[in-house]
Amino acid sequence: MKGSKRKFFAGFLTLMMVLLAVSGCGSNAADKSDSDKVQLRFAWWGGEDRHDATLKAIKRYMELNPNVEIKGEYGGFDGYNQKLSTQIAGGTAPDIMQMDYYYMEEYASKGDAFVNLDDYQDLISLSEFSEDFLQDFSVVDGKLTGLPTGVNAVMLFADKNLLTQSNIDLTGKYDWEKLIEEGEKVNRNNPDQYFFNMGPGEMADLVSTYMKQKTGNNLINDDYTLGFEKADLVEGFNYAEELWDKKVAPKISDYSTIVHKIQEAPKWINGNLAAVMMSASAIETFKTSKNDLTPLLLPISEDAVETAIRTQPSQVFSVSKKSKNPEEAVKFMNWFLTDEEAIEILGSVRGAQPTEKGRNLLAESEQLDPLIAESVDLGLENSGKPVNSISINTEIDNEFIDTIEQLGYGKLSADKAADHLMAQINKIIEDVKPE
What we know:
alpha/beta; D-Maltodextrin-Binding Protein, domain 2
């Protein structure tokens, strides 16, 4: 009996040791599995809608790819670029980062901050993106440095009702003279109505477009010299005066209290203004019960050096050169921007989708306004050269608007306004020009 008991306990202990060993191995295997997961950091800014949709997309990707763990680093816009700049300089940047395209250009020009996505073409559905758009906004020094998160376009948006009432035809391509000829019909048909809803800011943008078609240059060249001659600016100001004089656009005084809120113009709300020059992403705020908007091209001169139709990414995504897992980062970025499930999850939280497939998909599911989709496609078909960052400097923009106001109120002639604005721009250039 004693011998049998000893054998039983010996066998029992042996079995327990085996079970503990197996259990221990299982625990170590699980721990190893967790530690072997690819760790990615993904940084972006935005509002709550963007945060919620992005986090939902990240969660879905991790469900589909259990070997990947993605940590979101997100918040508002304030302070985002300063933090990102510090991280890039210190080699601690997130694996995937969202930024404006001109910041990407700035960081990339200062050093080897981002991976060259050309090296990962087998992981990216590049054919779904516009080749010209990528070349204009994602290639720096010959390297594909980022991918657009969305597409925006500055177009004319016109009320079909007023166009029909005034027998206006601005479909297809037309020049600056035809814009005035057709635009005059609105006020001629009804003295309380005008073609343009155009405050000083929009008039400044229109004049800039006019000059860029003529010169082929941005307002400020990359070497911080003026991209135009005085005569070009005077001609642009003369055109603005003609729009006011021929009642294609209302007097500048109509916008004295709504300079940056022209959607609140009483004439617009009441259906007495036909068209607005605006970015596609902002057009929703211009819809009223009185209008039925359709996108139109801006005028293009027959002898234009370029169209100057402004399209640009909503933002761009880039992968850090310091990333330990660039392939996995690229795979996630490609899924995020091109996969149909991801597109449905994200909707239009970063504007119109960067691919035609994405825009069509969201338009069909009514997540993207067909008006925005149509205007972005029209803009891409006729896009001009990209605007550089110095030309959209806030101080320069404010000076341009102030000069337009003085021109509109008759305080400055076109000639004097040109002298004044050029002097102010040159002062700002001296302050911001790199040493």
